[in-house]
Design brief:
- The chain is an alpha/beta fold.
- The protein has 2 domains: 2-218, no CATH class; 240-729, Alkaline Phosphatase, subunit A, CATH 3.40.720.
- Helix content is 45%, strand content 10%.
- The protein contains 24 helices and 18 strands.
Length: 733
Amino acid sequence: MLKTVLSKLLMVLYFVCGALILEAVTFHILGMGFMPEYFGYNFAIIMFIAILVFIIPNFTAQYTIYTIILGLQAIMIYINYSLYMIYGDLFSIDMIRLIDEAGAAMTSNFIYFSVILQLFFVYVAIVIVGNVMLKKCKKDKIKIRQHYSIFNVILILAIQCFACTYYIDERLYINSLSDINSADYVSSDTFLMNTSFMKYGSYSKFGSYGYITNLLLGMNEKIDEEIQNATINYFNSGNIYNNSDVFGIDSRNNVIVIMMESLEWFCFGDGTYDSSFNNLSYELTPNIYSLIYGDDYLTDTNNDNTDNDSLLAKNFFAKSKTNYSEGYAILGNYPVGEGLSDIAGTNYDKSLNAFNYSMPGVLSNLGYNTSYVHSHVISFYDRNQTHGNLGFENVIGKDNVLDEQGNPVYTGDDLSWDHWAAEGDFARNAIDYIIPTDYNERPFYTFYLTVSTHGSYIENENEADCMRYQNYVRWGADDCVYNEKTGCWELKNKDAEPADLTPTEWYANVLDNYYQIDPDLCEELVYYQCGAMGLDEAIGVIVDKLKEYDIYDETTIVLFSDHYSYYNKLANKVKGFDEEDYSSIELNTIPLIISSPGLKEYNFKQIEPDDVKYIENTRFCSAYDIIPTLFDLLGVSFNENLYIGHSLFKPLEYYYIDDTGEETDMVVYYSNTGGLFCKNLYTYNMNEYVFNNMEENQEVIEIFNAEVKNILTKMNYLHILNNNYLYNKISNR
């Protein structure tokens, strides 16, 4: 009998040791050390899985299932490594919905062959050892009745009981570290376990199996009535912000928010990188340039500042993927540890009302026509399910744009991944959704997500802007002519050699700066800039239509990027940062431009017009700040507790003294993919800190931690709000 038990346990040993070896590999390649801090928590889950499979009487079946689970663990190691290398992210449950798209988006730049080989050899070695154990076990011919003997069943139950008890005890212990009502809850391991609000920190604390278990348990977690009431009271007691003495000249202003995929400031420049953004150029992005400086900038010799209605946020920051940045600008937050599909997808209860605090929800209640427009298929990230529930009246993607006859404009391969339509053409086809035809009856709010600059920045005949603009980007209008039939800029002399052509200022600067170092980078920048030109064309289409309707001076336009250009590590190369740099502020500084008639009035009140062509905002800010800033501009009062960010025009309470002796607002940016940042500081665990462009300063850390607690407290209440559908019990104003 004892020999039978030992044979069975040998297979368990194979799985447990294999899982721990792979865990050590995970922690090593992610730079987390050797094993998770809560090793027992992770080990108990491994044992639980091991004993579940132990129940199977057949050795071969047991070995096969263990091997499959270990194979999935090895695959997860690679997924996490590649996600972390690309943009500092780790796996989450909502990514499962994107498996097909992720596969299509994968290029050779995202394949780390050395890591694949290392994982392959480690996995094969584990499997071979397991096979040796299997052969040894098979020599002991165990019959079904022996497997389910009283002794064996008692042993199985005892081990499983131990594993479950140990897991529950560990979870109870972690939950006991801080009560949900305590001030320290949001900085505790309790909050981290229940929300995985910082992926890297959660993974390093709880391990692979613990991390996944926490994600699964955290989804749609229900909270008791007392805490629900505390949540409702928190929001309903929030400060109601109103700055109508400065803004709100026309609270019925139209609003167009354009989220520009992977856009960098150097897309609007002269082919050089200038961290101060003083090299903005008219040459390749004239519509964006005019939006910033005004239409009459080139002819305005008097510097009379008459067109000054733009703001440039030169410290606008993002360390998130597209869906997160989008959520920040639509909701003012993003579901903690989950995705929009979990709180606004098919399970959403419409009887609870729309998200009455979202940007489209608030403006819809004010009588606005609200539209969401995306130049990719609308089912991506389940937007066809979620965004109507978020408050958008119209939800439009490339797959449901219709022509004048009511037929789909884009069909077949046009809807496939990386078959990007020319962004300007898409804007023309979707213009009646971007600017509704009933614009003179009610104001409108449109959120438009572009895709032309997504990547992968290689010549691709399926990317229309790549084909349309590549000659123009290199040689300009002097040597190129637009072919109406093909929709592309072509060389006037098709037999011309590069030496016979005059490069644009942009292309000449790119060659001067990068060709000797990295010729491939020059080509990548050409195709990236083609996408930027397509985006610029789309903005021109929108601005022209606003002017045609005579509502340009009644419309606020916001342009912002979702994240830096991580494809091929383009931003790292151009900005001069190491490819594994995830703590840099400058690397993740991207465009935010606001053009609004309210800004012109504000500028005359606040700033001397001495040769100032736009308002320069230097506060550290992010997409969290877009909703409060827009509400401020529109004169819409709002509950500050419902939004993580602040209006860019609101003086803040917390500041610190930087190395130059200047007072710097303490603004904290939270990203579950990237950690916590302020203008000079970064942490992923609130224990270890990296200072950017500043000497280490304990006082700054203390001010930072205090503001972090404020934000995480708000996030915790938002987590409860979203998971328990309390929307109709709170007031935004």
